[in-house]
Amino acid sequence: MRSLSRHPLRLLFLSTSVGPLGSGLGGGVELTLHNMAKALSDRGHTVQIVAPAGSVCAHYAIAQIEGALQPTAQTEGRNAAIVMPANAVLANMWDYARHVQAQYDLLVNFAYDWLPFYLTPFFDPPIAHLVSMGSLTDAMDRIIQQTSALYPASIGMHSQAQASTFPAGLQSRILGNGFDLSLYQFCPHPERRLAWVGRIAPEKGLEDAVAAAQIANVPLWIWGVMQDSAYWQQIQQNYPTAPVTYAGFLPTDQLQHELGRCQALLMTPHWVEAFGNVAIEALACGVPIIAYRRGGPAEIVQDGKTGWLVEPDSVDGLVTAIASLDEIERQACRAQAEAEYSLMALGDRLEQWFAAILD
Ligand code: HBI
Question: Which of 49, 70, 141, 326 has its CA 20 to 30 A from that of 24?
Fold first, then answer.
């Protein structure tokens, strides 16, 4: 087996199929792929990316593949059949991989789709699968289970909560995530305002944060893609006098500047968030997190030290936590990001994962 420290690996990253890298259509997995490429190339491994045409990812080499984008898994029903559009970019990406596979030690799949899992036994180099969301459909549960049974070390996930949404017995390695913390500035003295960051959509539970801000009478600033404007209109009708400002979608460098000047980040998910990248971005700026005890964020927040964990769906719990923010040291938040979620920490976890697969 190639020992990682002496022999750098030649890695082929196969991106999500729902949109070109840089379009935002791939959501959190775009940031995850970029951070993993940086963590691994920083320590000498070579990374080649395969992604839908029109992709951009810093200075990494990208094979741009034409074809029809995949429908998003989270909009399919639990018992949805597997869909392969004509001239599917997903199929074309894996046909490209078939031709170049001999040049790589390991393939890493970032698509939450049936085909890459099904193809695993047909390829010579091993395939590591980064599963980026919780259980969504029976077909995906089955093929992930079958792949894990054949290749026990091959399934990677972000959090235990995410892994627990899949049928019992599925073996997976919990990777957390990692960020280039030099992009995030620590802010010791915030303004009197709270933050909420994410897609404006029902599963994110924005209405609870608005209700809490109204009761606590603290301004709430909201950043994120306006995915469901009817939902946002409904919130404004239900809370006409709430002290809230919707400030649009910001790229990382501007977001971290605004987020850093907030007293806390409110995380109010009504679904099981696989991880919660924005929680780490907040910690990196010294911003405490107030989150429902649900999903990935519940494994990130150190209750009472880097934020407060609240009874799920309890607005009163959010209000009590807002009143207790002065007990949290902002420096402890930055320290946790550096200890657990740096690119170095992620790189170590990835090398351990790859070594387990290559054994
Ligand atoms: N849906 N079919 C499909 N394939 C993906 O790779 C995919 C998706 N929906 C969302 C998504 N990826 C990413 O935005 C999340 O993994 C973050």
Answer: 141
> Does the beta carbon of 274 lie inside 6 Å of ligand 1?
no
Query: CB neighbours of 56 closer than 8 A, spacing ≥ 6?
Result: 20, 21, 22, 62
Name the pTM for this structure. 0.89
Q: What's the CATH number of domain 181-340, 3.40.50.2000, 2.40.160.60, 3.90.1720.10, 3.40.50.300?
A: 3.40.50.2000
Residues 279 and 295: their CA atoms lie apart, in Å, by 12
Token pair listed for 283: 């910690």
What would the pLDDT profile of 142-189 be if each residue is shown by its tens digit?
999 999 999 999 999 999 999 999 999 899 999 999 999 999 999 999
Assess contact for 146 and 352: CB atoms under 8 A: no
Pocket-testing residue among 14, 15, 16, ligand 1, by greatest number of atoms within 8 A of Cβ: 16
Sketch the domain layout of the chain as residue ranges: 10-178+342-358, 181-340
Distance from the alpha carbon of residue 199 to the mean position of ligand 1, in angstroms: 14
Predicted local distance difference test score (pLDDT) of residue 343: 97
Calculate the average pLDDT of the chain.
95
Domains 10-178+342-358 and 181-340 share a fold: yes
Cβ neighbours of residue 223 closer than 8 Å, sequence gap 6 or more: 195, 196, 197, 247, 248, 249, 250, 255, 258, 259
pLDDT at position 22, please?
85
What's CA 170's distance to the chain center, in Å?
20
Measured in Å, residue 213 CA sits from the centre of ligand 1 at: 32
The residue-averaged pLDDT of 209-230 equals 96
Is residue 308 within 6 Å of ligand 1 at its C-beta?
no
What is the structure's pLDDT at 2? Answer: 44
Q: Are 112 and 133 in contact (CB under 8 A)?
A: yes
Fold observed for domain 10-178+342-358: Rossmann fold (3.40.50)
6 C-alpha vs ligand 1 centroid, how far in Å?
Answer: 35
